[in-house]
Design brief:
The chain has 2 helices and 9 strands, in the order βαβββββββαβ. The chain is of the alpha+beta class. A hairpin with a 3-residue loop joins strand 2 (39-45) and strand 3 (49-55). The longest helix is centred in the last third of the chain and has 14 residues, at 107-120.
Length: 133
């Protein structure tokens, strides 16, 4: 599968549109977002699916969906112990989007989910997914 990276906060990111053939390239793309306020990027697969990924310093979130915008949208859910009522704001085009803490995962898990998508084009079975609208 071929996946491309798009920074949804910084359109001037030199990695925008780059093909992500391996974990090293994926790590470079995700690390480019960790140096600023939490923000979104996308991995768009040539299979018609995409991951919307929120990247913060140590946490993130991830949503799996069809690239054409059709339902369902599936978001990875944190463990039961993360049922906090708080939010983390991730930026896209300078607009903060509040994401409930229950959808925030450690960045190492976000990387693993993204790496699996780059290889298979599928959503990871290592986490629970919840349908959102």
């Amino acid at each position: 599968m071929i996946a491309r990276f798009f920074d949804r906060q910084d359109t001037a990111n030199p990695l925008n549109g780059v093909t992500v053939p391996d974990e090293r390239t994926l790590d470079e793309a995700l690390d480019s977002l960790r140096k600023r306020e939490p923000s979104f990027c996308e991995l768009m697969g040539d299979n018609g699916f995409e991951l919307l990924i929120g990247v913060g310093h140590d946490i993130g979130c991830v949503q799996y969906s069809a690239a054409d915008g059709s339902l369902p949208y599936l978001i990875a859910v944190a463990s039961e112990s993360a049922n906090d009522d708080g939010y983390v704001e991730f930026l896209t085009a300078d607009t903060p989007t509040p994401i409930p803490v229950r959808y925030c995962l450690p960045l190492r898990m976000i990387r693993a989910i993204a790496a699996e998508f780059v290889i298979t084009g599928e959503r990871s079975e290592s986490v629970t997914w919840e349908e959102v609208s």
